[in-house]
Input
Amino acid sequence: MGKKRLHAIMIGFCYQGHVIPFTNLAIKLASSGCVVTFVHPEFVHHMLAKADGVNVAEADPFIRARQSGLDIRYTTISDGFPPDFDRIINYKQHWEAIFLDFPSRVDELIGNIINSDDEAFEHFLVADTSYSLPATIAHKYNMLNVSFWTQPALVFILYYHLDLLRERGYFPVQGDEENVVIDVIPGIEAIKIKTKDLTSNFHDWDETSITRRIMVEAFEKVKQADFILINTVDELEHEWVSAMNQKQPTYAIGPVNFSKLDVPKSLWSKTDCAEWLDSKPRGSVLYVSFGSLAQSNQQLAEEIANGILLSGVHFVWVIRDGADMLPDGFANESKERGVIVSWCNQNEVLSNPVIGGFLTHCGWNSILESICCGVPMICYPFFADQPTNRKLVVDDWKVGINLCDGTSVDRKEVAEKIKELIGSETSNSLRGEMKRMSSVVHKALDEDGSTHTNFHRFLEDLWAKAATGATHTHG
Output
């Protein structure tokens, strides 16, 4: 009998910030010779299938991957609700189901996949760290357990030490202690992170909160993972990756969003912004894109829209479903200077030399893409990991500025910050730092760079551990 083939069963998370890197990790594994079964939540599949502005059947990276000869199998799994169930409005009900009922669905699906395989496979489970289910299921089916974290290593190590932070009184954060410096976690002594910079879960006092329960449980269970993959660059977060490596085998393999099978320019140009961009001066255009939750904030949308008008800059604004959130007359008043689109390929837009800045909610994917493309940022975080991401961008790496100093957004301040980012002395300083950081990331992505080396070291270690039959040595 020949050598077994590695078969990755991948359980994707349901938010876009997780789906994109998870998809690219699947392609990366398949490109390295693994068989991949990618499991998507049914409602995410339906959402992508009806997306506006792009032919999903053409743009689907898995279709292109299979056309390139990669062995990627695709299936869906129900989260217990119909596709049109509003999971944002009913997030508590949705997450209760994910926490309590979803693991049994995953268990059944994985059992069926393994039992139906008629080839000699060494199965391993790759699941988002935000799930608590992998430890139990991997143990049941004697699979190696690979946890994939789609956010910064800094956020991972903070969550990993929740018990220590609770013991020292940092979790949950006291409302009047926003500026307390945290200096008790191994590996982050050199960074002055304050309680205000912690993720939104650290500010949640409700111990019965479903989001808090899920995160606490997930980071207890991740301590049983055989391997941890983080979508970051070792050179950007070396101290924290190194500190985690002292606990469990941890590999910085990011940014995984840059794939040879990325969406062809012929597809994203259907949004009509490519030709428009190419007609503008270098560094003169502001790119604006927020996450889906941020887009539902009417007042924010109006203040940013009016701030853009006051600034007088050219812009591309991605609003997937919320163009009606903009002030009356904005589209007409700004049509000579801007383009509003429902979808675009963000990497392609950011890599265009006419883009001079990125107004962002500080999602980790967006930050990595902005760095790769050398575009400085204006940061306005909302929740989850975004406040911590902002701290990295503005305070530590100095490749961005804050949108506002308070909690509310004012159109005049928006205009001032846009003008500061595009065409000022501050802009020159930011661009210098961004150019240096972008160079570091691109070197990491080279064939002999840290990202490539770490990924192949992970595969070698995975094979070695699979050969011994040893699993679940942590916890």
